[in-house]
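Box 3.1 — From sequence to structure: 4603_t:CDS:1
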Amino acid sequence: MAFKVFLGLGASIALISPAARAVYFPGIPELFAVIETIIELIETAKCNREALPVMKEYMIEVRNTIKEHENLINREHTPALMNALNDWEKFLFQYTKPKMKKLLSILTADKTSRKIQDLFNNLSNALTSASLHVNLDSNRILNQLQNKQNIIDRKLDNITDNHASTSNKLDKILKLLVEDEFVTTAYFHNGAPLAKEVIEELKLQPQWFKPATDTHTAENGLTKVMYCNASEVAKIHIGVVGDNIERYYVQAYISTKLNSDLFAKNFGIMQEENNYYMITEWPSLGTLHAYLKQYRDITWKERIRMAVRLARAVAFCHSKLIVHHDICSHNAIVDKSRNVKLGNFHRSRGLKDITTTVKGETENVRWLCPEKVRDGTISYTKEADVYSFGMLMWEITSHEVPFADKTYSEVFEQQKKPFIRPPIVDGTPKAYEKIMRGCWAQNPISRPAMEVVVKELESLESSYENDTQSMYSESVTSTEDAPPPPPQSNVTIQTAITLHNQKNHKEAYDQFKILADAETPDARANFYVGLYLIDQKIQHDKDPDIGESYLEVASELGFTQAVQYRAQSKMAAATELRKKFLAAGQEEDADAIQQRMKSECLPLFLQGANSGDLRCMKDLAHYGANLGDEDSYKRGVKMLEDKLTQQISEKDKKTINDYLTRLEKLGENFNKE
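Predicted structure (token representation):
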């Protein structure tokens, strides 16, 4: 299917600084996340399966268009695009609830077709406003949907039986409409057992294998054997008769579905006397963990190549609606051609599976996302895989597991804190660092889709040999005559702030970054690094995306100045856009911006206000009044009034009274109502 992309008016967004756009419009990853959720809802819907594939066809084209032309999107219009996608998500969610009353309501052809037509039209308009156009034949799609709905209605009429109970009718309807191939064939999709014939195909006979001439045991207990006297394969003990080894059959089955050179081959399960063994591809050069330990002088070209292959493997899993669940260097192998391959799928499962808790997963907590560490009962997601992949990227740079100097228990407790990440390794390419930081973002929504990670790593790989100058992290020297960074023992936040106040920005930044990237990151240092990378008034190279990630860390660590700065930046950018839309008569876009201001800015002001910041209290009330949010206005005013009853300085009392005088006028509109 062909599609076109039309460029929007560059002048309209040029009015806003790059920093402000970066702070207020992080929306592309968010769009990806919502689209992926929509596609997952379509994939897992329990009814109306006849019509859903046509919707999926359109949504996949929308996703591919946004991914391919991400850099051309007019980001002013992403709020309206997000609203249109949210409408799709809400509409599709009802398909996941196969109850009789809801089901018959959904299957009303005319009502459904009208609703779908509205969804298509609204999304099409939002895409066009964002400078994108998915060139599909809408009439063809809607006609297909109408025809499929009519077929379903006729089938329902045929199976309706006045003598059948309601439950029997529902059973027949569901049997007719639930057409999920994974339910009957794949355990990893929703917990249904593997079919017997599938298990039989995965069983291997012991007589097919002979001991290898050079008997060798590799890391993880793999033993080399010969398959049919021709191929070297690995044999690993997985249990004895009486053990539940079903998960290993699942692992073997998943591996057969992921038939690609990106994955370590898994041939099946062999029973030898009372023991079970899994037969896999032999890791000629060991696991990636062992390889990195042995070869510490590998080039950056090879490191980036490894990261690209592993990213493609994880993205391939996600495209099949499989989450790996256990991404780390121990679960990848290196073959004799030095190709790294992803393996070990015994924890892998579909996106809708109930997942295990953190308890017992002692070996992978170093790679586990913070939200899963804090609450082991939440579902494992693609975003969790992305976080683990970011940690794996760090392993490739450091040749060490994350937090190698700490015990499991120490890492577990540490990861419950707001933001703890390993320090950036000296010499890391800046682009590589940026991708890695995106993957291990604190907020899962902020993490990029693996398809985006692949694209960025491939771009880095292709440009690596052409331009090695200025590619490395600014925390290290890139020229021979440049002064080295200050010794760690001489770096303090007070020294860095002094250098900043003296406008010695180069040395100040170096010290701030060391403190921000430390194993226990300094909140103020993160704020200043973000400021240096965003604020145009500070003389320093700008990178708003990375700058925003540092500000987010500072906010997570409770530094109210960072919270206030982020909220003010978002609000300024949004206010500017909203005025422009209103002047152009684009009220729908202006309303979308206002809703985004309420949902993103006011919670930040509230966060700062709760920590005792007077200005955030004032801004919560001030912007609450401007946005018509009476609750925010009253909350901000009350917090200031309560502050007056406490033991505070005369200066603070005067400041609060000035704030309250100005806020009283803003609250008059609420009083009139």
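Summary of the box: Residues 561-672 form one domain.
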